[in-house]
Design brief:
Largest sheet: 9 strands, mixed
GO molecular function, one term: kinase activity
Protein name: Glutamine synthetase/guanido kinase
CATH class of the largest domain: Alpha Beta
Pfam families: Gln-synt_C
Helix content: 25-40%
Structural class: alpha+beta
Family: Belongs to the glutamine synthetase family.
InterPro entries: Gln_synth/guanido_kin_cat_dom (IPR014746), Gln_synth_cat_dom (IPR008146)
Number of helices: 13
CATH superfamily of the largest domain: Glutamine synthetase/guanido kinase, catalytic domain
Number of strands: 15
Oligomer: single chain
Amino acid sequence: MAQFTQVDLLQVTTCLESNPKALLEDLLTANPSVAFVRFQWVDYAGIVRAKSLMVESCRSLLAEDNFVRLPPMALHCAIDSTLLPGTDYPGTHWLVPDWSSLRLSSNPKALILMCGVYCGPTPYSLNSKWDLCPRGALVRQIQRAEDEWGLKFLVGFEVEFQVMKQADRRGDGMVPLSNGLGHFATAGMLDPCWSVVEECAEKLRSMGVRVASLHPEGLRGQYEIALSPSSPLQAVDELMLVRSVLKETFHSRGGTATLSPKPMAAGGQQMNGQHMHISIQHANSDQEEWFLAGILKRLPNLWAILLAQKASYDRVAPWMAGDRIAWGTENRTVPIRRIRPDHWEIRGMDATANVYLALAAVLSAGLIGISNKAPLTWPDASSSKADIQDDPLPRSLSESLAKLEDSSCGLDQMLGERLVRHYIDLKRYELSQMEDMGSEKARNLLIEVF
């Protein structure tokens, strides 16, 4: 461990607690069974990873203004935990915690803490050593919006998931555990899994997460939990907590809750999305249209970050992620549904995305639109008089990665050229790994991870 300055820390968090020591001690006093603090981050594969410190080590770390050292692989792992070829093994990565995210986990013995990742040998290197951090990328866009235009955002998520179980005693394959009728049917609430969904919602509420609603979704055995809007960083932190609670609670009951985009075997029609709601605050009507236009123009480039696995592209269809560049007022057949002029639902995202990076990319696209005063040339697809343009979206991860590689969209300037290049390289390597393992093993891996 080595010392970092407060200036370094503020590069990856905008909501630093003024007294993290007091925050930690208050939580430990209220929860005397806590023995560990889990320092968590989300890598480019969208996987939540963690290093746990004993409480005593965490106290020492805070007393010395130190941070957590890792091997130089925090942002270099593919979904199967193999490392991107060419990874530079000498060096160090550092977990830089946002202490305001500290809270009790669903495990009464552990606290969790979300972190940024500093990639460099020492914390005193150039600021560019933050340039691979997805959380840092989101912080930069939030700060840019406020500094240059006085804009703030509220963000919320809809979490769709399926409950699965092992197909047989050998543990080969996964099949649905829940079979409750979907689409809001009260009959679906008679399935035994529904009481566990309610238990998860109660746990989340006790942990400070504002759950707005929950209901049976899809055809059979799928559920949805919708979260109330929060500031962007807090919203993503809470989403990671929701995933953890779902996974851990159902695992303790012998099931597997999965947010994988297509958990069913080939031919299954039911799929999971993770819709993102964005409200832009303090904007005028022109800025709102420019923001939307910026996102729409770059939607094919964003697709690689929002839909980050091969299986994600089975959702590129109406009523799911959408299949063409379009928006519409209360229209769920297109990628962007307008709920009101300053509130949009981004339907083209699922749980395979690194959500810090995905939100950073969407905000970047919108801010480019504002900066360029981009005209909104796409009509409201909900209007009977709309002349809908035929602008198809990428239908594969390979195609969308090629779109993201096109620097003319401007996302690399906003997010950082090194970050975008690293993301593309890792995703292409990961795609080859997934194809090599075969469709059934790949499906089971996505169920396990997401």
